[in-house]
């Protein structure tokens, strides 16, 4: 046991040393800027204002979040042990829980997506019946009261988005369904009243056996879809479809090793499809560490316009993507951070995917921010999962960065970060890593993250 612990200590020390080294970059600095100038750029003032945990003794996770009209937030995910239930939780502006509800039956139930309706919310995920996993749609009111609960067909929904174009509102849920020889990508279009308008399945390209859609990007002329395909290697999968789901094109990206996609964002803030879109995830192909964060920009006709691997030593992943005024904001996790076994982090890039700054956020445990939204008072709200801050098992986790620092209630206090430390944490590369089971999984909980978490537990036991 002593030898094993010593080996694991060495592993952690090596990761810590790697964390302070400059990250390798896929491409050189932008025209007109030197590497020194990029490394000297400081991140904006986005201090961690407060953080909170929610849940019980099982595996609790937030997978999506939206702002609410009363200044608070609504979150969805799952909670429980082996028999997981869909989880809906409402907070006020300071993260104080106002109410929570569980949904589902006796099997595994998960909620992955969330969208606002005119006077409530639409939730999407998967539920288990005697026929196996089913694509699941639930409509709730502002107080969480269930208005409709239905299944659409065999499979699961991993993404849900609302599209407002012209004078109409529609919704699109995407994931996977059973195909002729494996799993197909699946999209279900919904009218403004949330009734099913159409369904489409998209077989994986030739040479791949399974396809999974994990991200939806509404545009002025339809949707971009992104996910992964599995075959001899796992690669990125990108599609463009019309408002009725008819496919205009599909394409793939990736290398000889494993590549995965968790999120996507429009290249134009106004949803103009002619600008293309950017997907975010992780790659083991030509990576600096065991796994790097991965960004791929596709043009409107499916051509790859640029590709970035904002990683460094260690294992990293990117699992949320957001268009900002001057580029993009991505969130993910890394085992090369300064705080715990795996830290959450935020990465900002310019419009060409070049890294601008990166900051770590987290506890002394395993932290994974998944979705992120702009907070009501400025800054951002990160949501996901943590094993720190006194969590029993893994708890749902909220972190408020930037904006007002009024945490109120029982929010975990956060020490003020010295500006020099902030600068040292920034501009070190960036990236994320995630290993998922074929049916969706959780970004970031791969073998590397599991080993680091195990090391932390063994060291804690020796104390």
From TrEMBL:
TM regions (residue ranges): 442-461
The keyword Ribonucleoprotein belongs to this UniProt entry's keyword annotation: no
Region feature Disordered, mapped onto this chain: 26-46, 403-428
Bias (Low complexity): 411-426
Key word Lyase present: no
Keywords: Membrane, Plasmid, Transmembrane, Transmembrane helix
Protein name: PGF-CTERM sorting domain-containing protein
